[in-house]
Design goal:
single chain; alpha+beta; 5 helices; about 40% helix; about 20% strand; globular; signal
Amino acid sequence: MNKFLNVLSILLLLLILSCSKSDEEYLKDFNNYEVVLSNNDYDINLSNGAIESDYFDIKGSLSLSKNEQLVLARLFFDNKINKPNDDVLVFNNDGMVIHPDITSSIIIKYFGKDKSTITISGFADSTKVRKENIRYLRFKSKVYKVLNQNEKFKKIKKSIDSKEDDRVYL
């Protein structure tokens, strides 16, 4: 009986290990997607590092390290950002609508074809959105944590922040 339990535990361990993705698989799968994080100031393509701001007339490119790419790929798949095949709206579920709402978006293409756009309210609060939408807030937050460690991103963001912004939101 003891031998049977040992064999069973080894088989279970092998099953668990074989089901987990390797780093290379995460990166290979992520290369099939184009993921753009967009806000009112700039769009950043997480797949190739391109960053641009139409309003501030800035274009650049981030050099993402392999580790940064891997973290972004893991965030993308572990938070199931690849799952929606439709557009998703993330907003507080408390019945309150505040205008103007400065939103951000996650635009996803799969093999070059539009897959989904996830629009996140600027007022979205993880304690007030639907439970299934918390992952989008988590993804956005953690992506910005990764990007804020990137020196090139910091420079471009500083350049954008230093420009005068005379937009009026109605």
